[in-house]
Amino acid sequence: MERGSNVYVVEGGERDRGRKMERGGDVYDSPQGVEIRGRYDHEFARILSREALEFVADLEREFRPRVKYAMACRKEAQARYDGGELPGFEPGSKWVRQGGWVCAPVPPAVADRRVEITGPVERKMIINALNSGAKVFMADFEDSLSPTWDNLMKGQVNLKDAVDGSINFVDSDRKREYKLNKENIAMLFVRPRGWHLPEAHIVIDGQPTTGCLVDFGLYFYHNYAAFRSLRGAGFGPFFYLPKMEHSREAAIWNAVFERAEDAARIPRGSIRATVLIETLPAVFQMDEILYELRDHSVGLNCGRWDYIFSYVKTFRAHPDRLLPDRVQVGMAQHFMKSYSDLLIHTCHKRGVHAMGGMAAQIPIKNDPAGNQAALDLVHKDKLREVRAGHDGTWVAHPGLVQVAIEVFNSHMANQPNQIQSSKRLDAANLTDEDLIQRPRGSRSLEGLRLNTRVGIQYIAAWLNGTGSVPLYNLMEDAATAEISRAQVWQWMKHGAVLDGDGVKGVRMGLELFGRVLDEEMIRIEREVGIEAFRKGIYRVAGKMFAQQCTSPVLHEFLTLDAYKHIVQLHPSSRI
Ligand SMILES: CC(=O)SCCNC(=O)CCNC(=O)[C@H](O)C(C)(C)COP(=O)(O)OP(=O)(O)OC[C@H]1O[C@@H](n2cnc3c(N)ncnc32)[C@H](O)[C@@H]1OP(=O)(O)O
Ligand SMILES: O=CC(=O)O
Ligand SMILES: [Mg+2]
C-alpha cells in the first residue's frame, strides 16, 4: 500500500516506538495503541503485520464514533417500534426514492453472477467453492463462521493464498490434494461481520475493535493489488455487506471504501459491494442504501433468513404479528414476496444486480428419493427467482450449483443478467402494508420442538468453532438459528397458543418450554450419541438457548451473547 496517503501520516515517530507483544518469545509487531490479545502464530503474523494493523487502527479510530452512533440509532428506532410504531418509508428521503439517479456501471468482471456459492473461509471449502462452477464465491466471515481467533486469522491466510492463486490443501487421511482449477474459477466476494460484532482479540486504544473493520481492513490491505490484477480485471476487491438497518450504515461503509481507495491510491469505485437486505427496517431504505453506495454498489441481495429473524425482532412487542412455525415462513408469504419484488424493481431501476437468496436444502446422502425431493425444492425456488427477475441466486453446497445454473441458463440464455430486461414496474407501487403483512400459518408443538432441537445443536456447533452445519437435512447457520430462538422467545413472551398439530391447543409458557427442553435434550443425546453428549457442550448450549428464550427482553443477537464463550485472550482471561 502506498505510503504518504492520508492514512499513513506518521506522528512524530510515535509509531516507530510501537509495542511488540511478547508471546513466549514470539512477537506481533503492533503499532502504538494496538494490542493483539489472540494467540501468536507465525502464519497469523503474516497477516498481522505492523502496516496492516496500522491500516486497521486508522479505520477504527476514524469510524468507531460513527459506528457507535449508528448502533445507538438502531436502539432508538427499536424503542419506537416497541412503542407501537411500524417501520416504513421515511418522508425525509423521498427525494432519493423519486430521483432519477443510477449507480456506477457494473464492472465487466461481475456482470454475470447467475449462481453464487457461499461458505465459511475454511481452506478446503474455499478451494471447492472456487472450483465449483459457480460464477461467484462469497467467502464468509459472517452467518456461516464462528468468529474464533483461529477461524478468523486462518480465514485471512486462506483468502490471501486464494487471491494469489497459491492455495492448496492436503487431506492426508483421504490421500486427496486440493488446488485451484486452471480456469473457470469463481469470482471472489468477501462478507465481513456485521457492524454490531466486536473483535475482542484486537484492542485499539483500550477498546475492542469493530469486527467488520478487522475483516475488511486485513483482507483489503493484503489483497487489493493482487485481486485487481489477477481476478477483478482492474476492479475490486468485491464485498457483501450484511445486516444493515439504515442507509446511514451504508454511508459508513462508503466512507470506509473511499478511505481504503485513497490509501491504496486506486480509483474511486474500484471496490464494489452487494448489500444484503436482511432486516425489516432496511427494506424501506433500499433506494437510500444504493444511493449512499452508488459509486461502489453492485446490487442488493435477498437475505431471507435474517430477514425473517428481523421481522420477529422488529415486532417483538407486537402480539398481533407472531410468526407461524418456521417451516411455514417461505418466500410465498406475501411480505416475503413483496420484499423480493421491490428489491428487483429497485435494483434494476438503479442499474445493478438484484440477487436472490439461499434455499436451505442441501444434498442428502444415502437417500436417493430424499435427495431428489431436496433438489426439486431447490429447483422450484430458483425457478421462482429467475422468473421474478432476479439476476442470480445463492447455493449452499457444490452439489446444488448445477441445478441452479440450469434454471438460470434456460431463462436468461445469453444475457449476463436481467437488469435491463426485467424492470418489474408492477412492484413500484408496493406499500408499507405489503411489506409487513402478517405471515399466515399455524403454530405447533412440533414447531417448538424443532426450534429447540435445532437451536441447541447449532449453538453447540458454534461454540465448538463451526458456524454452519447440516441438521435434519437442511443447512443451518447463524441466521436460521436466530429465527429458531427468537421465535420461541416471541411465542413465550406473548403466550402463543400452539394448536397447529390438529390437536387441542396448548399455551406457550415456562412450564411447557421447560418440559420440551428436557425432552429435546434427551432426544439430542440419543441422536448425537452418549460420547459426544458427555463432552458437555450440548448442556452449555441448552442453557444458553433457554436463557435467550426466557429472557424478559429479547437479546439483540444470539452470536453477541455466545461470543463471550469463544474469546480466548492471551495472557488468558475472559472478557
Ligand atoms: C443465511 C445465510 O447466510 S446463507 C450463507 C451462509 N451459509 C453458508 O454459506 C453455508 C455453506 N454450506 C456449508 O457450510 C455446508 O454445505 C454444510 C455445513 C451445510 C454441509 O456441509 P457438509 O456436511 O460438509 O457437506 P457434505 O459432506 O455433503 O460436503 C461434500 C463436499 O462438499 C464440500 N462443501 C460443502 N459445502 C460447501 C460449500 N458451501 N462450499 C465449498 N465446499 C462445500 C465439502 O467440503 C465436501 O468436500 P469434499 O468432498 O472435498 O470433502
Ligand atoms: O445472509 C443471508 C440470510 O438469508 O440471512
Ligand atoms: Mg444473513
Automatic annotation (TrEMBL):
Q: Which InterPro entries match?
A: Malate_synth_C_sf (IPR044856), Malate_synth_sf (IPR011076), Malate_synthA (IPR006252), Malate_synthase_CS (IPR019830), Malate_synthase_TIM (IPR001465), MS_C (IPR048355), MS_N (IPR048356), MS_N_TIM-barrel_dom (IPR046363)
User: Where mainly located?
Assistant: other
- Which reaction is this enzyme known to catalyze? glyoxylate + acetyl-CoA + H2O = (S)-malate + CoA + H(+)
Q: Which PROSITE patterns match?
A: MALATE_SYNTHASE
Q: Where is the Malate synthase TIM barrel domain?
A: 188-437
Q: Hey, what's the signal peptide range on this chain? A: none
Enzyme Commission number(s)? 2.3.3.9
Q: Which UniProt keywords apply?
A: Glyoxylate bypass, Glyoxysome, Peroxisome, Transferase, Tricarboxylic acid cycle
Q: Key word Cell cycle present in the record?
A: no
Give Gene Ontology CC terms: cytoplasm; glyoxysome
What Pfam families is this protein classified in?
A: MS_C (PF20659), MS_N (PF20656), MS_TIM-barrel (PF01274)
Q: Does the keyword Phosphoprotein apply?
A: no
Q: In which pathway does it act?
A: Carbohydrate metabolism; glyoxylate cycle; (S)-malate from isocitrate: step 2/2
Q: Residues in domain Malate synthase N-terminal?
A: 33-91
Malate synthase C-terminal domain boundaries:
445-566
Q: Where's the active site on this chain? A: R191, D477
Example GO biological process: tricarboxylic acid cycle
State the protein's name: Malate synthase
Q: Which organism is it from?
A: Amborella trichopoda
